[in-house]
């Protein structure tokens, strides 16, 4: 299936915020009507932006198949990046989430084991947000989705970007997807939108596979942000916003009030730190290939995100992920002093389930087998997720 994924909301946010800062009411009046059509909220959004406090944004790029689907938003969320933006520390973090992480997705009282990216296909943005909140044990304040067409247009509208192809061969996906003929030569290159799409999607030739692709996706986001920061033309800002707005959905109300409030986050976009939630390769009894996380790594990522939001470190791992290690100390350590008590409405309840056995595979694949020194453990049900500013709210199903 053709992957058309990448998200560029940081760039759009930067375009809008910088544009308002440079051109004031002119850009504000010309863009609010255009941006208003991107809004798709759930009715439970917090006031974090109005209060200018650290916030989390889930970026999702949707796999839209061959492009022939009637619904441009149907598919899996094959790109997922959890962003924190902190106006106090003036820093932003981007944490890539491996799409094949084996997790427990709960909807309508039923829990199924599936890849993380399938939550969106099962229940749209609401279920994807809920599932990732439970995975990371953190409240997600806002979300943004963008499709492939938005990436191509955005890169072209900013006049292209500069990237560095670290390989000694051309980056191309034409062999697997003949409709995409763009190539990126080795070394430092100026690329257009079509090339940026290929650069962001190639993984089969990359020794790091999907992790290498995630690195290039984050590189493209950073390069677009840098390019937008260098723009000095009102027409540039308006053209970018016009092109991207048709290919984006978000629960950030981009009206005149909120756009002015977003100016408070401008400085945080200048410093971006990048992280990845990684797992171990595993082939399960259903024949599928998955990524299975370890408790220590997942807890480390959870605390990186918490630190970025100004929250205190936690000792206990709360997650809905299928875990591939037996660190009972992490799993069972008391957390009464670390996490708030949760009411039954706030904390999802997970039933016991049968772990799928891992199918033995050859040693050189890096796949974890039953003979490994670690054993799978049943995850602890997440407590109420926590935000730096508000009482946790999980989108209703």
From TrEMBL:
Domain Cell envelope-related transcriptional attenuator span(s) in chain numbering: 76-229
Stretches for region Disordered: 361-397
Top-level taxon of the source organism: Bacteria
Compositional bias segments (type: Low complexity): 367-397
Database matches in Pfam families: LytR_cpsA_psr
Family to which this protein belongs: Belongs to the LytR/CpsA/Psr (LCP) family.
Protein name listed in UniProt: LytR family transcriptional regulator
Taxonomic source organism: Streptococcus parasanguinis
């Amino acid at each position: 299936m053709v992957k058309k994924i990448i998200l560029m909301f940081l760039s759009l946010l930067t375009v809008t915020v910088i544009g308002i800062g440079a051109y004031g009411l002119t850009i504000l009046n010309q863009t609010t009507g255009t941006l208003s059509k991107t809004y798709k909220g759930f009715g439970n959004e917090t006031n974090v932006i109005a209060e200018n406090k650290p916030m989390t944004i889930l970026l999702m790029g949707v796999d839209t198949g061959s492009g022939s689907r009637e619904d441009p938003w149907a598919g899996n969320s094959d790109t997922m990046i959890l962003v924190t933006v902190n106006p106090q520390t003036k820093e932003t973090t981007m944490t890539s989430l491996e799409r094949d992480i084996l997790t427990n997705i709960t909807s309508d009282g039923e829990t199924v084991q599936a890849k993380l990216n399938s939550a969106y296909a099962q229940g749209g943005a609401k279920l994807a947000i809920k599932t990732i909140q439970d995975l990371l044990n953190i409240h997600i304040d806002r979300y943004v989705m963008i499709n492939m067409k938005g990436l191509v247009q955005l890169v072209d509208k900013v006049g292209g970007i500069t990237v560095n192809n670290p390989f000694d061969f051309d980056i191309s996906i034409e062999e697997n997807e003949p409709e995409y003929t763009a190539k990126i030569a080795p070394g430092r290159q100026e690329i257009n939108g079509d090339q940026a799409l290929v650069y962001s999607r190639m993984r089969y030739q990359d020794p790091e596979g999907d992790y290498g692709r995630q690195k290039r996706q984050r590189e493209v986001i950073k390069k677009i942000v840098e390019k937008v920061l260098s723009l000095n033309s009102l027409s540039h800002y308006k053209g970018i916003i016009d092109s991207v707005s048709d290919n984006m959905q978000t629960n950030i109300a981009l009206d005149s009030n909120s756009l002015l409030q977003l100016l408070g986050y401008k400085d945080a976009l200048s410093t971006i730190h990048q992280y990845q939630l990684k797992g171990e390769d595993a082939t399960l009894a259903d024949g599928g290939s998955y990524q299975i996380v370890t408790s220590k790594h997942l807890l480390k990522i959870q605390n990186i995100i918490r630190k970025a939001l100004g929250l205190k470190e936690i000792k206990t791992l709360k997650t809905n992920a299928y875990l591939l290690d037996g660190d009972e100390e992490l799993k069972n350590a008391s957390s009464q002093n670390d996490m708030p008590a949760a009411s039954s409405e706030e904390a999802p309840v997970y039933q016991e389930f049968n772990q799928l056995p891992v199918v033995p595979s050859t040693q050189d694949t890096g796949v974890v087998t039953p003979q490994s020194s670690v054993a799978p453990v049943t995850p602890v049900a997440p407590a109420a997720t926590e935000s730096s500013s508000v009482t946790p709210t999980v989108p209703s199903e």
